[in-house]
Amino acid sequence: MGPRLLVVVLAMAGAAAPLSSQSAKSSVDELMSRVATYAANYGEKASLIVAVEKYIQRFGGDRPRQVTAEFAIVKAPGGWVGYRDVVEVNGEKISDRRDRLMSIFTDPAADSRMIRKLTEESSRFNIGPISRNFNVPTTVMLVFLPVNLHRFVFTLKGQDRIDGVVTQEVAFKEVGTPTLTMTRAGRNVPMEGSLWVTPADGAVVRTRMRMRNFADTVTSAKQGPGAPQGAPQVDTTRPTAGRVMPTFDLEVRPIEASAEFAVTYAWHKEFEMWLPRAMAEQYEGPIRLENGPPITGRASTNATYSDFKSFQTGTKINVPQ
Questions:
Q1: What's the pLDDT score for residue 145?
Q2: Residue pair 55/68 in contact by the 8 Å Cβ criterion
Q3: How far apart are CA 185 and CA 178, in angstroms?
Q4: What is the pLDDT of residues 192-243, one digit of tens each?
Q5: Which of 28, 181, 212, 230 is the 20 to 30 Å CA partner of 259?
Q6: What is the pairing mode between strands 79-89 and 65-76?
Q7: Can you tell me the distance from the alpha carbon of 131 to that of 127, in angstroms, rounded to the nearest whole number?
Q8: Reported pTM
Q9: 15 Cβ contact list (under 8 Å, min separation 6)
């Protein structure tokens, strides 16, 4: 169902009239306040739940990379982060894994440095023209914590029914500077997209986010032929600020690049929560060849989430074969 003008039904004479600009602003502000509260509290329940992620990445004519991982919400300094712990790649088990997810949940000494290290470990299995560590399904929700709302302009769009539930679409555009995502050269990279939320409590049912021109061409010879070009990386140890961190310290110049994320959630009665069901991504950016200028490379991914379990000390996740 496409976007449509939101109207309010008046009690008198059954007449209908468009929302005034002031009423619309009040309505969207109130709704996003509920969304921010929902996002801030989401990790309190989800941090006890672990899922199996099946993640397929496609890049050019190469063989698709099939990644099996555990996905969980991890409490971190100042809030929570979504975390992927890779178990298998193309059917081969990761030999150096050693129950890393277990250590995060059970070690009281676990800190931001450990979480950052584990996030970077998982991101090394990504392929495509853009290096990244923000490709987890809860990234967009994490952006809309109360501390970040002032950075965005929100617009009420139409209503959609998702899995039988009426949701309100809210378009967002980042206007505050500096933006939450920046290039290594310090250029702002605003986010835009839509959220689909339940009006009563602000629960997030679907998200879509786009970013443009957020990578830099690597002109140094330090990266080999066809290597991914450096892109901003989300600092997952500072979830309330959402800053990004550079991955390379190389000579750079601006280039064209884009990323799009779409995530859907499903209601799980046993947990009384909306949990990720599927994620799809599209990346476009330059790849550096041995001879000649960079060419455009495209990558797409699809992920599904299943076998949700409450996490308890000693729990082992049975990964479907």
A1: 93
A2: yes
A3: 13
A4: 999 999 999 999 999 999 998 766 544 433 343 344 444 444 443 444 444 4
A5: 28
A6: antiparallel
A7: 8
A8: 0.76
A9: none
